[in-house]
Amino acid sequence: MLYKVVVYIDKLKVYFYKMLFSVLKILIILNDKNTKISNPMKKTLFSIVLCILSVSLYAQGGRQQLLNKYVGERKITLQWLDTSPTKKCKPGKVTISQEDGTFNLNIKGSQYKNDNEYVTIEGTIEPISAIEFKFTGTITSQVSYIYDGKPCVKSGTYTFKKWNGRPFYRLQEKTNCDGSAVDYVDIY
Questions:
Q1: Closest CA to 166 of 135, 187, 145
Q2: What is residue 53's predicted lDDT score, i.e. its pLDDT?
Q3: Rounded CA gap, 88 and 33, in Å?
Q4: Alpha carbon of 68 to those of 13, 98, 170, 176: distances in Å?
Q5: 113 to each of 82, 83, 89, 90, 148, how far by Cα in Å?
Q6: How many CB atoms lie within 10 A of CB 39?
Q7: Is pLDDT above 50 for 4?
Q8: 1-26 burial, b for 16+ CB within 10 Å, e for fewer?
């Protein structure tokens, strides 16, 4: 929800900037020596400029707040790499980091059961809300008994989403490269 508000505010900012440009043009015209600007007009123009700046700062703060919910170390799992205590396969790790001075988030990590059974992820994410994000990059998984044991490489833009209060984001495009198996790639 917060992201949708931020996007809406970003669209409003475009209109506000156009309006600000128009106000500045009016000020230039009115600043002519032959033209006098009344105090009420000055106050109105000043109020418009303040409103534009406030909306701009709010949108940047809201977006940063949403990004902060994602940044940090997280776990990643693929259900085929069973993490039950008897299987001795631990969840993997991913790092989500923010590029300095930007709103871009990078993600990189993996879970390995052994050299031939694993899941890796690398790319960028764009938060949509607190429960959903778009991932652009590559997810590679390999399991000995799926897709003839070959690596399944998915490159493109995919959606991860939390459902029903679960503590993880699940890849929504779940079909493995073999066309029949379903991969549950989860990020906690």
A1: 187
A2: 53
A3: 82
A4: 22, 9, 19, 31
A5: 8, 9, 5, 8, 17
A6: 7
A7: no
A8: eebeebeebeeebeebeeebeebeee
Burial 115-124 (b: 16+ CB within 10 A, else e): eebbbbbebb
126 touches 137 (CB < 8 A): no
Residue 125: Cβ within 10 Å count: 22
- pLDDT-based confidence at residue 86 (cuts at 50, 70, 90): confident
Between 107 and 27, where is the model more confident? 107
Q: How many CB atoms are closer than 10 A to CB 174?
A: 12
Element (H, E) at 18: helix 2-30
**Phi–psi pair at 184, nearest 5 degrees:** -100, 95
Question: What six digits make up the tokens of 185?
Answer: 């790639």
The CB-based long-range contact list for 176-179 (8 Å cut-off, 24+ gap) reads 176/141, 176/146, 176/147, 176/152, 177/147, 177/150, 177/152, 177/153, 178/146, 178/147, 178/148, 178/152
Residue 57 has a pLDDT of 45
Confidence of residue 122 (pLDDT cuts 50, 70, 90): very high
**Which tokens belong to 21?**
């440009």
**Residue indicated by tokens 């989860």:** 186
Amino acid occupying residue 19: M
